[in-house]
Design brief:
Order of helices and strands: HHEHEHEEEHEHEHEHEE
Distance between the termini: 63 Å
Strand order of the largest sheet: 3-2-1-7-8-10-9
Oligomer: single chain
Helix content: 25-40%
Number of strands: 10
Largest sheet: 7 strands, mixed
Strand content: 25-35%
Number of domains: 1
Radius of gyration: 19 Å
CATH class: Alpha Beta
CATH architecture: 3-Layer(aba) Sandwich
Shape: globular
């Protein structure tokens, strides 16, 4: 009886508010558009995208969509957190088109402290700041050392078409070590925040917009949550 009432209630809600149940947060819209339609934004065929890089992979659930929609693409994932690396490696152990690199990516090579939090997938090279603690209830769970590399070194003499960066406020550090390879990149999907205060010395959308504009990229999509954190898509400007 309760199940029947729930079904009837759901149908009534859908009739009264037809768009309510299908509502998708703007940051999800940006990610879904990127995973399924990036070739349209950069003006090429699906099979022309051969190299895809994910910096800050977490468990890299998006790989399934990328492989399905862009079957010719080789995917490299950088993940330095010891909390997720083993599962990530095991998930793609037998796939020669997915490479997992157990390193952080920054502006220079070296050994740095990594701050893992109590929340899933929110660890960073940067320390937590007040807004993250206040708005998300986060706290530092553990601190450990990680090795870092730059994208310019890793991708020297290699192709890179699409770059995804999700590094919890340290996005500018990644880009500052990628100035050479950015000349080849066609699109950048990046997690960003309009406001400061989530991580110490974090990048904001304004910082990233200025940096990428100088290197020939235009903003194509931006979607945030109610705290003004979310996802952005930049594409190389066509001359």
């Amino acid at each position: 009886m309760k199940l029947l009432i729930k079904k009837i209630f759901k149908k009534l809600i859908k009739l009264i508010y037809p768009n309510l149940l299908s509502f998708s947060m703007p940051y999800n819209y940006v990610q879904n558009t990127y995973e399924f339609n990036i070739h349209k934004y950069i003006g090429c065929n699906i099979n022309d995208i051969k190299s895809w890089c994910i910096v800050g992979g977490h468990l890299a659930h998006e790989i399934k969509n990328i492989k399905k929609n862009y079957p010719k693409s080789k995917i490299t994932v950088f993940e330095c957190s010891k909390r997720y690396i083993k599962q990530l490696q095991n998930n793609w152990l037998n796939d020669e088109n997915v490479i997992i690199v157990n390193k952080a990516v920054s502006r220079k090579c070296g050994i740095f402290k990594f701050y893992e939090t109590n929340l899933d997938g929110s660890g960073s090279l940067l320390k937590l700041d007040k807004a993250h603690i206040r708005d998300y209830g986060s706290s530092v769970a553990e601190i450990f050392e990680v090795k870092s590399i730059t994208l310019d070194i890793y991708y020297k003499n290699k192709q890179l078409d699409v770059l995804q960066i999700d590094v919890q406020g340290a996005e500018k550090l990644v880009l500052e070590g990628a100035y050479k390879i950015l000349k080849k990149v066609k699109a950048i999907f990046i997690e960003t925040s309009v406001n400061k205060g989530f991580y110490k010395r974090q990048s904001t959308f304004d910082n990233l917009y200025k940096l990428l504009s100088k290197r020939g990229f235009k903003i194509a999509l931006l979607g945030t949550d109610f705290n003004l954190t979310g996802n952005a898509l930049f594409v190389r400007q066509k001359l």
